[in-house]
Amino acid sequence: MQPNAIPTARMIAHGHTELRADLHCARFLLALCFFFWCFPASELRLLGGEGPGEEAAWTAARLGAFLPPSLGGLGLLAAERVAPAAYWAAWADALPVLRQRFPDVAQQLVRALEGDAVAAPPCVRAAAAATERLDAAGWEERPHWAACADGAQVPATDGELGLGGPGWQRRAVLALHTSFRERELLPAMAPDARALFRSQSGQHAGMWLAAIPADAAATLAPDLMHIALRRRLRLPLPLTALHCGGDGAPGCHGQADALGDHFVACPRTGLLPRRGFVLERAWVQVAREAVGAEGRVVPQQWLARTTAPGVAPADRRRLDLVVYGATPGGEALCCDATLVSPLTRAGRPVPGADVRDGAALAAARRRKHARYPELLRGGPQRLVVLAAEVGGRWGEECQRFVRQLLRLRVQRAPATLRATAAQGWARRWWGLLSVAVQRAVASTALGVWTMPALPGSPDGVPLADVLELADFAGPSRLPLR
Known about the structure:
By secondary structure, the protein is of the alpha+beta class. It has 2 domains: 1-22 and 66-188, no CATH class; 216-467, no CATH class. Helix content is 46%, strand content 7%. The chain has 17 helices and 4 strands. The protein has a 4-stranded mixed β-sheet with strand order 1-2-3-4, with helices on both faces. Helix 1 (2-13) packs across helix 5 (79-101), helix 6 (103-114) crosses helix 7 and helix 11 (222-233) packs across helix 16. The two termini are 27 Å apart.
């Protein structure tokens, strides 16, 4: 879908067509979320809303769906929005090649692009217009055309859905998406929707959308995928109970909402500990794959059985997992995972969640520090708070912990393959963790536990399978030499 849409995006930027190319991606979105309503002749009507009161929800869902996962979207390609970035990137990538082969022509093009392009050919005027659009979006790091011709180094950018191929295109597309999100989308949202949208943004927050279902741990069942997509798009969930704790089930007996926010945050349903075990199990699998036979991972470790000072033998506090052999100094990593919601069970944002990324994560980290003060006093152990939000946002300690495990794991790979192996392991582990979060949240969003039992995780993954997960440069967008 995306490789075919990029040339169409450049055609739009060049003024050759008014076609709404992103309808193809919209059709894919409809097929995923409303497959029983999607008919070939009704795309335009469905994009505006199908039933009474759904138009506003569908409009907001469509605007958010065409953002990259790290910005809270689904990664669908918005051809109209990214057309200026794709066209500018094509020029930026072509100028160094032109300068090598035809230096005089390249110099003339640079002067035309940086000067007055009114009398220039249409293609140069289109490139200048794309530059103005990127500047208006606030892309401060955009290189000048002369720097592009000199082969300016492209800053590293993680590849993800909706950003296109490697090179300057990713940076330019990300600038346009970020501008749209911060200037148009977030200010128009209600506080609760804004808090959830921030919760589902961030690095690796949307890895479940691109996870390869190679095993059960990386696979979402169709019903759970349906719920996860609806929650990400802020659409009503199917068959949601009207009250919490109806039909004799545990709960607070308060009124529930159709979006699942109450059940995801209510501690009286008894579902929050069950979903926490899903995330804990994923972290145990990742840690075991990282340390291998040289280390040890102990799940559900009593705090009294660690080396933490001042803990009574009868202490009943328990850590989710303790990892031995993962640090150069031999520290025991005492890990406690937590999955928190940026909304209360009443549907209101927790303090700061609607205006600041990771506000719920910071509060969760403070609670864990207050619960385990013995692990903060130094010694051969260290507390690691593995906090995540229900939308998929990961805390900074999670990012550091995975990076530490990656450095450990790739040492067992051949030296020539370590860079590729690091990409493959990172994609696998973040896919497992991201899928676990969505599985846990989707299983509680309806007020009943809907997740079937998972089979045991594999003891090890062949290196060849991991290398296949690594990113590749992709085909060149330049003509053959």
